[in-house]
Design brief:
Elements lengths: L1 E2 L10 E6 L13 E6 L5 E11 L2 E11 L7 E2 L1 E9 L25 E7 L2 E8 L2 E3 L5 E9 L6 H10 L4 E7 L7 E7 L4 H8 L4
Helix pairs in contact: 1-2
């Protein structure tokens, strides 16, 4: 059995909570661009790119939701999302190195929280343990992924909530050494319901 890689991250620990709460005020990404793509081998992606303020610094970000729907005896696709950050040198003293690689200090710790706000419905809040890596100099990618044929996975639950219609997708990543040091990002997802449905098309 093999898994076709789509991106770098794999969820090592998750907790799902649905609460009838209101999202706290956060820095909202504005002026960004959504883009859909499909590779020749069937991998579907939906990406949001913008420059946002993180820790008070202008930071280029790309948030990419991915789905590889292949299911078989040998190969299994994956589903999840990546957050790529540029200009990370300006985000010191956030401890990116604690999230990097198979022996990362943050592995197994739920240092990421995803919150999805949906009009007229309860907020979906998920705690995750992201993996991380450095794809190029002064960039860092946080990743969450699971096999796409796992119907009840948290990764699939997140995309299903977005496909049902949502207003915002919020990410908070807490530093492993200083709990008060957090990367906070809120992305507007209203109007992208059909695009998220396309990511999930064909999954059983």
């Amino acid at each position: 059995m093999s898994t076709r890689p789509v991106w770098s991250g794999f969820a090592l620990g998750v907790a799902l909570l649905v609460v009838p709460a209101t999202l706290p005020a956060q820095s909202q990404a504005t002026g960004g661009k959504w883009e859909s793509s499909r590779s020749g081998n069937g991998i579907r992606q939906l990406s949001y790119s913008a420059t946002v303020a993180l820790l008070g610094k202008p930071t280029p970000i790309t948030l990419t939701f991915s789905c590889d729907p292949v299911q078989g005896k040998i190969e299994h696709g994956v589903i999840g999302f990546d957050l790529n950050l540029g200009n990370i040198a300006a985000l010191a003293p956030f401890s990116f190195e604690d999230f990097e690689g198979p022996d990362a200090a943050a592995l197994g710790k739920n240092m990421m929280r995803v919150t999805i706000a949906r009009a007229g419905r309860p907020v979906v809040s998920v705690a995750l343990s992201p993996n991380g890596g450095t794809p190029s100099e002064n960039n860092f990618t946080f990743g969450i992924a699971e096999r796409s044929d796992v119907a009840g996975s948290t990764e699939r639950t997140i995309l299903q909530a977005l496909a049902e219609g949502a207003d915002t997708f919020q990410l908070i990543i807490t530093d492993t050494r200083s709990p008060k040091l957090r990367l906070e990002l809120t992305v507007p997802v209203a109007g992208e319901q059909a695009a998220f449905k396309s990511l999930l098309a064909g999954l059983k």
